[in-house]
Design a protein that fits this description.
alpha/beta; about 15% strand; 5-stranded mixed β-sheet
Amino acid sequence: MSRNLTRTRLRTNERLRKSRPHIFGYDESNHGRVPEILVVTYSKDPDSAERLYKQLPKIRRGEEGLSRALFLDVDYRFAVLEDTRLTRALYESRNKAKAIAGLIRGFRVETLTNALLYVDGRQPRDLEEVICTELRDMSFTNSDRIICEPDADRSYKIVNAADAVACVLYHKIEREGERGLRRYTDKRVYINFS
């Protein structure tokens, strides 16, 4: 890695520490199959947005995923898509952005002028534009603050926490059905794609 790139990242990390931004991470559990669990995690800790040079391990089962998210001082909101039509709709260009915006609204943060959003996966068409439009009333208008990367769940703590929560909730619903999610109703958001 070049020295200039390292210096740039260090300056960016220092700027993050001073500004205390709202940091969000997005991931989903089942990639097109039902039930699909969508998760957005939230933190004000600048370390959760730091790009790591070694890959984080993925958590696949158990409560360890939720405890890791809570250990990182991360809050989360999730949505469950149990209808194949809704899951398919998620992958249409504008609906993924609407789902992310709906989950971010679930945190009831007053203003997002100083927010960063990390999304696991390739950037869908129009994602930035739709998110900025959906969250305009909360002052989230700068699309440069949205970072989409394949394998972001292995590179950023905030997205790794979203991945861990999604996996844990997916396994709960797979084993116990809706009963498995009763403990988490205060974290659940219902998304309307119409």
